[in-house]
């Protein structure tokens, strides 16, 4: 398959409600979409980088720049396959989210051309996936409980609470007291230090599924030390940027569970390798979320149907994020989302709507 060109597009979408994490409050998204134009057809990719480099070093303007100047030139006018993209891009260090976006677009084009869905390609073993929801930091416990109540009413099968120093034990206690044994986990987005081990151990009595990324991403050894001081399983997100990093972290005892985010690790193929590695090591994985539109969500839901994705993911319905998604919406039924079955991503962006929210377009 020959890559002729790549169309880049920035779109603006408001979130249905502000989403506060330990690294800031998001109220809207400025999203970079890429369309691979090949001699076999077209494919879509979504870049998960945020407006500012607060979750990881990547941010959307940087992703756009590196795609135009460093990534697309290494792929354009060449015979490529999705499986060769990461190798061709290896000379460029880092920039996993930008790399993931173009690899996703090439994979979508390739699978659409041969009439195969993402789910078939990944070896999905389920037609639908269990969904959890990520609940941001709230101003008061009362407001948090109201939000959690509404999500449980909608059928979500697991609640994840964002935590930070000063907003941890109390919200967890309040949710446990009000909602009983609902599957519950917390995510710190690197906000703590190893010295906070006693505080994190204070979460042990609440029977959480996991504590996600309590310490800064480079502190893998400290996570292994923390794992000996708390009973709740440690799950890593930000620290796991490659299959090698996943392998090292598991061997070191830094995590018992892994959050898989294809954007964070450079693409769906590296994410699949992490799934496979974790399956061999007996480490459960679950699908993370980066507030994706229907395009990224389609691919995430397909991957989450692989066998070792044994915990509910942050694969929530479209209406948890956006009043109107750019594809047909993903709708929750009985706490699950259906895996798309059409060729490639199996969803189509609504081009008229997309054009109406596009803030910039370019070709590389
Ligand atoms: O449902 O897509 C979702 C959001 C899940 O909490 C979520 N994502 O740290 O995992 C995270 C967090 C996040 C969102 C991180 C956006 C960075 C950007």
Q: What would your notes on this structure say?
A:
This protein has 364 residues and is α/β, with parallel strands linked by helices. 34% of the residues lie in helices and 21% in strands. The chain has a 7-stranded parallel beta sheet. α5 links the parallel β5 and β6 (158-162). The mean pLDDT is 98. The structure holds N-succinyl phenylglycine. N-succinyl phenylglycine binds at residues 21, 50, 55, 134, 187, 189, 237, 288-291, 314, 316.
Quick rundown:
By secondary structure, this protein is α/β, with parallel strands linked by helices. It is built from 12 helices and 13 strands. Helix content is 34%, strand content 21%.
**Distance separating the two termini:** 17 Å
How many distinct beta strands?
13
Structural shape: globular
Detail the poorly predicted runs.
none
- What fraction, in percent, of the residue positions are helical? 25-40%
Which whole number gives the mean pLDDT? 98
Radius of gyration: 20 Å
């Amino acid at each position: 398959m020959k890559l002729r060109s790549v169309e880049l597009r920035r779109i603006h979408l408001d979130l249905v409600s502000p989403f506060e994490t330990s690294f800031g409050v998001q109220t809207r998204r400025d999203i970079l979409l890429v369309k691979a134009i090949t001699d076999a057809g077209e494919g879509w990719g979504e870049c998960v980088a945020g407006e500012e480099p607060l979750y990881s070093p990547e941010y959307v303007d940087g992703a756009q720049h590196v795609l135009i100047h460093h990534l697309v030139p290494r792929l354009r006018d060449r015979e490529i396959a999705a499986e060769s993209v990461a190798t061709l891009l290896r000379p460029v260090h880092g920039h996993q989210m930008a790399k993931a976006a173009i690899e996703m677009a090439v994979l979508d084009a390739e699978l659409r051309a041969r009439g195969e869905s993402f789910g078939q390609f990944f070896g999905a073993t389920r037609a639908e996936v269990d969904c959890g929801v990520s609940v941001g930091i709230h101003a008061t416990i009362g407001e948090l409980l109201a939000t959690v109540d509404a999500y449980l009413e909608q059928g979500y099968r697991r609640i994840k609470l964002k935590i930070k120093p000063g907003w941890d034990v109390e919200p967890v206690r309040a949710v446990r007291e009000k909602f009983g044994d609902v599957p519950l986990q917390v995510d710190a987005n690197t906000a703590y230090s190893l010295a906070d081990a006693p505080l994190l151990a204070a979460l042990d009595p609440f029977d959480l599924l996991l504590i996600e990324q309590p310490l800064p991403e480079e502190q893998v050894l400290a996570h292994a030390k923390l794992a000996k001081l708390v009973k709740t399983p440690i799950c890593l997100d930000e620290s796991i940027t490659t299959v090698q990093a996943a392998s090292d972290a598991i061997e070191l005892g830094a995590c018992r569970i892994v959050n898989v985010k294809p954007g964070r690790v450079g693409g769906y193929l590296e994410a699949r390798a992490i799934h496979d590695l974790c399956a061999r090591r007996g480490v459960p994985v679950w699908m993370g979320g980066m507030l994706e539109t229907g395009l990224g969500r389609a691919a995430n839901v397909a991957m989450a149907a692989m066998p070792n994705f044994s915990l509910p993911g942050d694969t929530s319905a479209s209406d948890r994020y956006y009043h109107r998604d750019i594809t047909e919406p993903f709708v929750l039924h009985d706490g699950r989302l259906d895996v798309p079955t059409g060729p490639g991503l199996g969803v189509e962006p609504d081009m008229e709507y997309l054009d109406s929210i596009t803030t910039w377009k370019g070709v590389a």
